[in-house]
Write a structure and sequence with these properties.
2 copies of one chain form a homodimer. Chain A has about 350 residues and is α+β, with helices and mostly antiparallel strands. Helices cover about 30% and strands about 25% of the residues of chain A. In chain A, the strands form 3 sheets. In chain A, strands 9-11-8-12-10-13-14 form a 7-stranded mixed beta sheet. Chain A has a 5-stranded mixed beta sheet with strand order 1-2-7-5-6, with helices on one face. In chain A, strand 3 and strand 4 form a beta hairpin.
């Protein structure tokens, strides 16, 4: 980090200016540019190792001759109950999905709770039961945990951190840095459902068809895809920051360009409508039951067929391809025939969406 | 949970009355009776499985022919910087220690951060650097992570959840349910240092000799103990709730009684003094660099010698023994010749100590 300068704060020299932010902003948690900067400037230099440097959502680790997948996420979504799910189900499915994105079979989850004094006991019970049910559905066990309570006004009802442990049994190498020019970009279904379900609650928007979170466990969909081909190069669930952020991350890690076609990307009418009302771009809105796969051309059709045969991949589509041109840049061919750069979002579009 | 009744709250039936608390209290995070009740009433019924039911601080899991130790803890200590440590070092050492308490070699850590909007960037950098240094000292890698940001007033500077993954290579079975009558109770050193270091900061107490947190990684001490004997029955680090809580948990899990002698328990003068000023019992005060071991009589002296030969066990002492009488009860022979029950604490003695 030689090019970075000390920020001159008294008592401690921060290694970077963090876009000149002396304080943490909501945008540092957005999944966009500020988050990326925080990771690169603060976490990587202090923790740096080959696993973290891959910037995957999960690490695949050698343990005693096996390959263990390991992933953690804190969930701070507000409200904690929303159409189609709750913070507990989101936490389990989110962790199962991060494990699945390495091709691992999810095995165990650790769950840590930070409760705010005054939280209704009934709300806690409801969230915990929902977690138990979600885990059972995925055939994964919650084997260890922790509970802390913070004073009223020092938390927000409850935060849950789930950490997953899985086993990579197949001979696959799935990582953000594996995309190659010519690879096809496959999206498993409609985008923006989770983010707009949360925003509809917050903004009290009413639609003829209520928008539901798409929270779902994707490990069986991934298993079906891997049955079709072991040649999958990248898998990522486009949560915080949406498909736009995920594609930028993959393009940067693999040092390739990506081109996608707007009219191939499925978006529900209600989600599109809500995005228009709120001035949001669905490409940046969080999904919690979708994945993006980067697959070599020769395997794309068989993987796509396997996805469409699975309940969670019925609307799967090839939405673009990986190119050698414009490395680290994502281009969108718009529905009206134009072309634009899809960049990382700078500030926060939707805070506390997961 | 047939004996428990619904609490009749509207919209959801909580399976238990939780000591009739309709809302979460600070005491539910104390590590005492309310925490135990929360675990038994809410978490076990929803998540229930053989690993969680052991109520160890870590789970030992079969994965592809190996034994993996897995543990998680959220750290919400306030203040985040204190004499002898900070929240980051505490998180790394705490997780290393929980892994070590199963006899595992600590390998990897996942770290999830919940930052409050407005946190000084320099404070975050200082904590993260401290975590990196603590991990390096333990030869453990922080391989995956997550960062969320919550609105100002919805968090408290930063919370850190660390999850550890270790490998149990030795043929040991160390668990809270392994204590047997006749076993010796060994304590690795002075008690109450961490808790009173935090309280001194909060209460602005000044002592001639400042009280320092004892936060330290215990994996090498445990390795030395296991070199001396594989017959160690229980290991636990007496953090939240102190030695009193740990002994009660071990007595309950193993369905045995425990008797300890007050005058064999080492307490620093400054800690004793601070406890007297604040009306606290050092037996209930948190430690972050100590362990309690339950060891068969025939192995006790060799384990004790190995401990005393290690820097973190110099003041180790046999403080009592496991008995068949009064199962699930801990008795203290007091310094003045009396005898009293050492029960679980009911409310919160020291909130947000770790």
């Amino acid at each position: 980090m030689k090019e970075q300068t000390a920020d001159g704060l008294p008592g401690f020299n921060c290694p970077v200016p963090l876009s000149d932010a002396k304080h943490i902003l909501l945008g540092h948690g957005s999944g966009g540019k500020l988050t990326a900067e925080l990771i690169r400037a603060v976490f990587l230099p202090a923790f740096g190792n080959e696993y973290l440097a891959r910037l995957d959502d999960e690490a695949v680790l050698p343990v005693s001759g096996t390959r263990i997948a390991f992933t953690t996420d804190s969930f701070v979504v507000t409200p904690i109950f929303f159409t189609g799910g709750d913070i507990g189900r989101l936490a389990i499915n989110g962790t199962v999905n991060d494990l699945a994105m390495s091709g691992a079979r999810p095995l165990y989850i650790a769950a840590a709770f930070i409760l705010e004094e005054g939280l209704a006991t009934a709300d806690l019970c409801r969230v915990v039961e929902s977690m138990g049910a979600a885990a059972k559905k995925c055939d994964i066990q919650i084997v260890t945990g922790d509970t802390k309570v913070v004073n009223r006004g020092k938390g927000d009802k409850l935060f849950i951190t789930t950490t997953g442990l899985g086993l990579v049994e197949r001979p696959v190498t799935i990582s953000a840095n594996q995309a190659r020019p010519g690879d096809q970009v496959i999206l498993s279904g409609t985008i923006g459902d989770h983010g707009m379900a949360i925003m509809s609650h917050r903004e009290h928007l009413q639609f003829e068809n209520e928008i539901e979170s798409d929270t779902a466990p994707l490990h069986m969909l991934v298993a079906a895809m891997l049955e079709a081909s072991h040649e999958i190069h990248c898998l990522r669930d486009p949560t915080r920051g949406g498909v736009a952020t995920t594609l930028n991350e993959l393009a940067a890690s693999s040092n390739v360009g990506i081109e996608i076609d707007e009219n191939k990307i499925p978006v529900r009418d209600a989600v599109r409508g809500a995005c228009e009302i709120l001035g949001l771009d669905p490409l940046y809105v969080a999904n919690e039951g979708k994945l993006v796969a980067i697959v070599p051309l020769n395997a794309a059709e068989s993987v796509l067929s396997a996805m469409r045969a699975h309940a969670l991949g019925r609307e799967a589509a090839i939405i673009g391809e990986v190119v050698a041109d414009h490395p680290r840049m994502v281009l969108l061919n718009t529905a009206i025939g134009g072309r634009r750069i899809v960049d990382l979002f700078f500030g926060e579009q939707l805070p506390r969406i997961c």
